[in-house]
């Protein structure tokens, strides 16, 4: 029992989540060890002396996933990125982590998404990328992953251009949201060779990639440099 108490502590706190005020009973020591936000809530500057915290704007299901992560020692179950509900769940958990600055949780989720995009060839749909942008801080690492992957799909296979079905959606999204910075980030991923999927198309002259090079020769055109796109995106 002594070992249990040293790990989890004796004090239990209560967190009410969502408009339904779903109740969660947690070991204060465990949750505070994983999150500076909860540490400040129960010990710090906005200390909850009564051991009660309300997160009425959050989703109880997302908080339940957070609690599972806390008690699992900071690990998460594998996600099947072909299943929309699982993707929705893991991304909602990431947004929760971003909101409350739980870096350990963010750093647990990001490698999972990276592995899915690189090793499993998972392509995030436009709607998901928009959710990421809407629910994370500017410059967040999670924005870079889907942008890099979509940029790869848009620019890599010019002959087939299999991702073209969603290209119109991207154009509309970038225009309506004045997301020039997003467009620049995607293009930088391609032309600066920062994509983990393809590092040879750098926009410094004729493309080194065989497919692009052949296309340039057959059509008598050259892919514009990144500076052209940056200028166009800022207009």
TrEMBL record:
It comes from the Eukaryota. Pfam families: BTB (PF00651). InterPro entries: BTB/POZ_dom (IPR000210), SKP1/BTB/POZ_sf (IPR011333). CDD domains: BTB_POZ_ZBTB_KLHL-like. Residues 11-73 form the BTB domain. This is BTB domain-containing protein.
């Amino acid at each position: 029992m002594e070992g249990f108490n040293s790990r989890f502590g004796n004090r239990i706190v209560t967190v009410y989540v969502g408009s339904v005020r779903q109740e969660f009973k947690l070991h204060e020591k465990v949750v505070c060890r994983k999150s500076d936000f909860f540490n400040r809530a129960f010990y710090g500057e906005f200390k909850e002396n009564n051991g009660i915290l309300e997160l009425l704007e959050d989703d109880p299901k997302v908080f339940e996933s957070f609690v599972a992560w806390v008690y699992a020692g900071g690990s998460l179950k594998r996600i099947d990125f072909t299943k929309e509900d699982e993707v929705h769940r893991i991304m909602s958990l990431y947004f929760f982590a971003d909101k409350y600055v739980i870096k350990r949780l963010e750093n647990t989720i990001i490698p999972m998404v990276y592995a899915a995009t690189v090793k499993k060839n998972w392509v995030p749909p436009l709607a998901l990328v928009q959710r990421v942008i809407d629910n994370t801080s500017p410059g967040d690492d999670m924005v870079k992953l889907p942008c890099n992957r979509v940029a790869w799909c848009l620019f890599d296979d010019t002959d087939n251009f299999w991702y073209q079905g969603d290209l119109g959606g991207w154009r509309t999204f970038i225009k309506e949201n004045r997301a020039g910075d997003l467009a620049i980030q995607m293009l930088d991923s391609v032309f600066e060779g920062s994509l983990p999927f393809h590092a040879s198309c750098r926009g410094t002259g004729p493309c080194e990639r065989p497919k692009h090079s052949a296309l340039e020769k057959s059509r008598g055109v050259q892919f514009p440099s990144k500076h052209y796109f940056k200028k166009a995106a800022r207009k």
